[in-house]
Amino acid sequence: MVSVGVDIHKRSGFAVIKDDDGSVLGSFPFKNNRRGISEFVQRLGGFRDVRVAVESSGNYWVRLYEALEECGIRVVLTNPLKTRAIAEARIKTDKLDASTLADLLRAGLVAECYVPPREVRDRRALLRYRASLVRTRTMVKNRVHALLDKYELNHGFSDLFSVRGRRWLEGLKLPGGDGLILRLALAEIEKLDALVEDVSKAIAREAVKDPRVELLLGFKGIDYYTAMIVVNEIGDINRFVSPRKLVSWAGLCPSVRQSGGKCRMGGITKRGNKWVRWALTQAAHQAARHDPRLKGFFERVSARGGCQKAVVAVARKMLVSIYYVLKRMEPYRGEDSRLRRRKLIRLRRRAS
Questions:
Q1: Can you tell me the distance from the alpha carbon of 163 to that of 168, in angstroms, rounded to the nearest whole number?
Q2: What's the predicted TM-score (pTM) here?
């Protein structure tokens, strides 16, 4: 068997090919574009039984991974945080990193990342794009609030960017360049609203076809968008042998430091999937107020450690319940069936 280690970057990559004995059969740079990857694949065509290890670095690996996948070549995506032989090396070059990856692959010591099917990767991209649009829109809205604070302008709207609120904003006459900034900001918010609406409808059309989303709508604080983030970031729930593994993967488990017979528990590790962690932390605020199974738990933890720790603890507890819901494909035991039906009706209307 031939093992290939690839150190990939935005515009280029470096590959080292080794046999079972560790002898170098070839090493070469290539461009990380369609032509360069095609030439790389052609070079591998002269070998039988090839497997390739590529380090997960940003999104630079995606093009190469998909090209190798289409050619039927087995690709292993490695976790850079767990590839200590590379991360802790004193001398780092592309060639040395690729060679180390080939050796780790040859010895079966690669920390492999889960790569979902392409349709799941496409849905992830859509969900993350919506999050970036909402984040940008929030920044622009904050800029408008800052302008109002600058001129000590107060408004009586519960939502400043409602129809009436926007009409009031459009009627403001601010001096100098601030008036232009306000007009441009309002125009930008209007465009972002339209983009968010279009993406949300596309996500809803995907969500209405997924039975897992319907089950997760039984949780207080989880709408179809949050449910789509959770199911698509998790992927195949069966890859987690226990809810503890899922919680650890999401970075919602407490850090542990043990030395000399003493054990100290710290804050959550935050090493894991940031999207699931973010989505469930947002959902936990609603669940802590409206879910009878979680409200008392939130109050007890909050009394001991504060509100923020209690929210994270609720998110962790929700994720454990989500594990069993997805594993058994059964409704959440604490669900309000009428609320879930109302959410489902709204989802179907959005998708139509």
A1: 9
A2: 0.86
